[in-house]
Design brief:
With 75 residues, the chain is mainly α. It has one domain. The chain has helices at 3-13, 17-23, 28-35, 43-54, 57-69. The relative contact order is 0.16.
């Protein structure tokens, strides 16, 4: 997965980078490195994105909303 592909996923999901970092449980600085292709996106992050993409849209939206609402690094 490339940074541009991850940006497109966030656009499709209606998320900005800060929200995407919360959803993926990543520090915003690390996510910025991935989005700008400064660092390689780990397989675990790509698999997480893939798994979320496979959920039915309504279920994915509910889960994304829950994750965006939580405080950083909260389960």
């Amino acid at each position: 997965m490339t940074g541009e592909e991850l940006k497109q996923v966030f656009r499709n999901w209606g998320l900005n980078a800060a929200q995407g970092a919360k959803v993926l449980c990543l520090h915003s600085n690390k996510l910025s490195e991935y989005l700008e292709d400064v660092s390689r996106i780990p397989c675990a992050v790509a698999f997480h994105v893939e798994a979320l993409s496979l959920l039915p849209e309504a279920e994915r939206r509910r889960l994304l909303e829950q994750r965006v609402e939580r405080r950083a690094h909260e389960r």
